[in-house]
């Protein structure tokens, strides 16, 4: 049996993908929203009362939650499985820094924790989304996803490797696009926005198109992207790489969440 914490858009897709191999996929409905319950229903996931019950029953637990909640979710699971003679495999598929995953490994047992990084959209058909995995038990988790819409790839045995890859990739997909919001906000503040647009247009750059694309992609997810950029910054800083671009992007998305476009 597999447990999903928690079935947002990506979690529902992961749970649905695992049904054929796992037999049953459960989720914890205590305190979750109606939207979460509806996604779980559409994905044919089975509700259990709470995280503790899920942790007691599941053989594999997949954590896919907002980055800032990853450690707290792992702590809930650790409490629930403390007396289990056969603790579950725990797949942390969150967009967190490698150090966060290693802390979760220390909490739950490094040999039982798999570092996961989803790159791509929620996968309902093959070919678009890769699930990178690292850790001692990564091959076993990859086998679970064989034949599913998620292409599972094992990156190695080191906890944190998959999260490091996701952090580096996110600099390109989320930090760099935030630069358009930064330069537009500065130009507006200085009153040179029209001149900037004219200059960029002469260079073949459509500033408004870039801004519209940024808001379309981030949209209601801006608050979550802020947390991911915080974790990416921590990943960069840990290896003495300048982290300012990710910190700035985190602030852009926090402001975007507070003042939707």
Automatic annotation (TrEMBL):
Domain annotation Phosphogluconate dehydrogenase NAD-binding putative C-terminal: ranges: 187-255
UniProt protein name: 3-hydroxyisobutyrate dehydrogenase-like beta-hydroxyacid dehydrogenase
UniProt organism field: Pseudonocardia kunmingensis
């Amino acid at each position: 049996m597999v447990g999903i914490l928690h079935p947002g858009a990506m979690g529902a897709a992961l749970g649905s993908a695992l049904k054929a191999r796992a037999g049953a996929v459960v989720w914890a409905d205590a305190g979750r929203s109606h939207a979460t319950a509806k996604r779980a229903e559409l994905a044919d996931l089975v509700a259990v009362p709470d995280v503790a019950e899920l942790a007691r029953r599941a053989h594999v637990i997949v954590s896919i939650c907002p980055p800032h909640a990853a450690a707290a979710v792992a702590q809930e699971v650790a409490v629930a499985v403390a007396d289990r003679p056969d603790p579950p495999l725990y797949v942390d598929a969150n967009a967190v820094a490698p150090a966060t995953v290693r802390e979760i490994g220390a909490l739950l047992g490094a040999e039982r924790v798999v570092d996961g990084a989803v790159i791509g959209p929620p996968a309902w058909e093959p070919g678009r989304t890769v699930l990178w995995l690292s850790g001692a038990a990564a091959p076993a988790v990859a086998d679970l996803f064989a034949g599913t819409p998620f292409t599972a790839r094992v990156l190695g045995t080191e906890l944190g490797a998959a999260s490091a890859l996701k952090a580096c990739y996110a600099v390109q997909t989320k930090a760099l696009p935030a630069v358009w919001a930064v330069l537009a906000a500065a130009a507006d503040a200085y009153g040179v926005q029209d001149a900037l647009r004219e200059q960029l247009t002469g260079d073949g750059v459509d500033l408004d198109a870039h801004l519209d694309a940024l808001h379309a992609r981030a949209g209601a997810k801006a608050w979550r992207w802020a947390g991911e950029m915080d974790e990416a910054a921590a990943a960069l800083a840990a290896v003495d790489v300048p982290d300012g671009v990710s910190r700035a992007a985190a602030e852009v998305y926090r402001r975007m969440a507070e003042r939707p476009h």
